[in-house]
Amino acid sequence: MLKRGIFLLCLLLILGCSHEAAEMDSAEIPRSSGESGIETAGPLRADEPPRTSFSSSQSSEDRPAPPSPTLAECGLQPIETLEVYRFWGDGEIYSHERIAFEGEQTLLAMIGLAVSSLPFADEPLPVLGVTREKDFVTVDLSEEFIDRFSKREIFELLNTVSMTLMQNGAAGSFRYTVEGETGLLGDLWKVMPLAVAQEKPEEYAKICASIPYLGMTRLYFPTAGEITDRFGVAMDETAMEIARLLARVGKMERDAASPQELEPSRLYLSCVWNTPAFYTVSGEENYEPGLIPIADSVSAKLGMSESMFWIGEHVRQTARILCGDDFELDLTRGEGLKYRYFPLEGVITPPHMGGGYDTIPLILSYEETEDGFCAEVVYLFESMGGIGPWGMERTLTEEELPGYVADKAQRAEVEVRRAEDGRLCFGSFHIKTNQPSGHLQ
Fold first, then answer.
1. Domain count, the chain
2. I need a surface site. Which of 71, 86, 232, 310 has the fewest CB within 10 A?
3. 378 lies in some domain
4. Are residues 127 and 159 in the same domain?
């Protein structure tokens, strides 16, 4: 009880310190049941989810459909198209789009469609119920809501829902409760004022289409001689071709029977890194002044000046080169890695923080298949901190590398296939069992 009260108090204070988004009661919030518990693990930062452990005796899948008034009960006519106002917290500005409103004509469905405009909300919102008195709407959320979203995401989500309902005539004021309690998000949610970004999606699409794809970025990969000298592995030209492809595809942590089963955010990151970026600052490589209108729109949403962009379609083209001509990359999967996709502008922006790493696949052996090759591979990763397996307890010395690769490194079986134009594409990845674990002694 005390731990849960402390956690909610901490989150309340953090949300209040952000944009004064709501009037919140700082008293400890009482609980009516001991069937669920929250354990705190430090303060919440704006750029990370709350580090909590939440368990409940009743999962969201077991709950019945939450109650919600229909639009008719709210005195509204049926809606075919919903005017959705997505809130960008950094720039304190809204973007506007129209989305077809199909299915149930309820406030809950309206809320769900508004939330779908947010790339970080890829699952249904854990709503327990929606009520409306005159134009005052109360949305009751489960504690899963607190566990799932970061402070920034909560702020953007609730303003997106509130402004969308307001602009569609469904509500005038709001209260958001957690398990029926009002202390966490305030008795009255203060919606950020409406300031709409001046967007020109048709113009942006023409700009992006006018910028040619330059091919993939240069790959810095060791030569066959360097690999032999450093790792004790002899690789012929076919093995080097396989290795260079796998170096571009990047880190893989789990089995994938096809490119579609690769971990989406990691593949997204690899495709971005392998795609040339463009800049709106003269003197930079790939200077592209035509992107300035897009830079202005994106900068308004970010609340800062941005001058570096990847063209979304270019990143998709890189994914098709690596994974096959019929592969389609989901550009919304980079939010967790801080690479933000702006669908109306058609571009991706960088996080301007953190460092990178190089993937070094070592091809121990390979055999030809009907449409490509099947290879036994050891993966090493090198960064400013050193070289070793992913999640290494310590880095390896240069003297340790050959012995580690030969006797201790985890093996993987990787299939690649020839495309019609002769290039190699990723096929599948499987961690081999009954092999060295990769743990250092």
1. 2
2. 232
3. no
4. yes
Per-residue pLDDT reduced to its tens digit, 106-116: 999 999 999 99
- Tell me, yes or no, whether 157 and 38 share the same domain: yes
Name the amino acid, one letter, at 79: I
Same domain membership, residue 209 and residue 85:
no
Same domain, 159 and 35: yes
State whether 163 and 20 are in the same domain: yes
Residues 161 and 19 in one domain: yes
SS (H, E, C) the chain: CHHHHHHHHHHHHHHHHHHCCECCCCCCCCCCCCCCEEECCCCCCCCCCCCCEEECCCCCCCCCCCCCCECCCCCCCCCCEEEEEEEECCCCEEEEEEEECCCCCEHHHHHHHHHCCCCCCCCCCCEEEEEEECCEEEEEECCHHHHHCCHHHHHHHHHHHHHHHHHCCCCCEEEEEECCECCCCCCCECCCCCCECCCCHHHHHHHHHHCCCCCCCCCCCCCHHHHHHHHCCCCCHHHHHHHHHHHHHCCCCCCECCHHHCCHHHHHHHHHHCCCCEECCCCCCCECHHHHHHHHHHHHHHCCCCCEEEEHHHHHHHHHHHHCCCCCCCCCCCHHHCCEEECCCCEEECCCCCCCCEEEEEEEEEEECCCEEEEEEEEEEEECCEEECCCCCCCCCCCCHHHHHHHCCCCEEEEEEECCCCCEEEEEEEECCCCCCCCCC
Given a cut of 80, is residue 51 above it in pLDDT? no
Boundaries of domain holding 219:
201-223+256-349
Q: In residues, how long is the chain?
A: 441
- Tell me the mean pLDDT in the region 69-91: 92
Residue 372 exposure: Cα atoms within 13 Å on the Cβ side: 22
Same domain, 213 and 342: yes
Higher pLDDT, 372 or 55: 372
For 55-90, give one letter per residue: b (16+ CB within 10 A) or e.
Answer: ebeeeeeeeeebebbebeebebeebeebbbbbbbbe
